[in-house]
Amino acid sequence: MITIKPEVREMTAVDVDQVYAIETSAHANPWSRLTFQREIVNKRHNMCLVAELGESIVGFMCMYHVLDEGHVTNIAVAAPYQNKGIATHLMLEAVERVIKRGIKRLTLEVRKSNTKAQHLYIKFGFKMSGLRKAYYTDNREDALVFWTGDISDENYQQLFREIRQNLDDRE
Ligand SMILES: CC(C)(COP(=O)(O)OP(=O)(O)OC[C@H]1O[C@@H](n2cnc3c(N)ncnc32)[C@H](O)[C@@H]1OP(=O)(O)O)[C@@H](O)C(=O)NCCC(=O)NCCS
């Protein structure tokens, strides 16, 4: 797989139109523009990042965090740029930033059928730990609940370095 290295930075209000276009093409139950606008205002508990190539936003992710837990609430990459390491770059940057904020464990929900996203999360040390029945309102699909272990410990840091190295080797 050939990978691309985007610039990863915090999402701002001017990014919302491009982000929203990716969101509506990627998710059956998309967030509204207003949701993104709210997420980027509440910086104390939220973090949204974009991956940018030149002037174009090609992917984004959002996290919510409280105390020492982080919740990945949204991640998507524009279809033409998928499978090129963009989500991996976003996750690497997000994990690095939240460790600095004292976050110890990450969680998220993912559709049972979304094996591609599950592979991404498993690569980042998430493990399936539960199931929420009929969680998704569009088709009543079940959500798998994933958690990491302590992302500040040496084992996780080793995994983190391996993911980064693997990506560097493919660029
Ligand atoms: C899930 C998604 C964000 C991944 O983004 P991406 O930029 O394509 O991901 P990457 O290129 O960084 O690949 C990450 C990992 O996903 C896995 N992966 C990639 N393509 C895959 C495929 N076709 N089948 C299975 N796993 C795949 C691999 O584990 C890959 O890591 P590796 O190449 O080191 O093994 C993207 O597919 C997407 O936007 N999907 C629609 C929205 C969505 O489902 N979001 C998640 C909601 S929970």
Explain this structure to me?
This protein is α+β, with helices and mostly antiparallel strands and 171 residues long. It is 36% helix and 29% strand. It has one domain (7-170): Gcn5-related N-acetyltransferase (GNAT) (Aminopeptidase). The protein has helices at 16-26, 33-41, 86-100, 115-123, 154-170; strands at residues 7-10, 46-53, 56-66, 69-77, 105-111, 127-132, 143-147. The protein has a 7-stranded mixed β-sheet, with helices on both faces. The radius of gyration is 15 Å and the shape is globular. The mean pLDDT is 96. The protein binds coenzyme A (COA). Coenzyme A is lined by residues 1, 26, 75-77, 82-88, 110, 114-117, 119-120, 123. Coenzyme A (COA) binds at residues 1, 26, 75-77, 82-88, 110, 114-117, 119-120, 123.
User: Ligands bound here?
Assistant: coenzyme A
What's the domain count?
A: 1
Number of strands: 7
Question: What is the second-level CATH architecture?
Answer: 3-Layer(aba) Sandwich
Query: Quaternary state, please?
Result: single chain
CATH level-3 fold name: Aminopeptidase
What is the typical, i.e. mean, pLDDT?
96
Q: Report the sheet with the most strands, covering strand number, pairing sense and barrel closure.
A: 7 strands, mixed
| Dominant shape | globular
Structural class: alpha+beta
**Over the alpha carbons, how many angstroms does the gyration radius reach?**
15 Å
Provide the succession of SSEs. Answer: EHHEEEHEHEEH
Q: Number of helical segments?
A: 5
Per CATH, the class reads Alpha Beta
Beta-sheet strand percentage? 25-35%
The N- to C-terminal Cα distance equals: 9 Å
CATH superfamily: Gcn5-related N-acetyltransferase (GNAT)
Question: Which percent bin holds the helix content?
Answer: 25-40%
- Low-confidence regions: none
Please give the order of strands in the largest beta sheet.
1-2-3-4-5-7-6
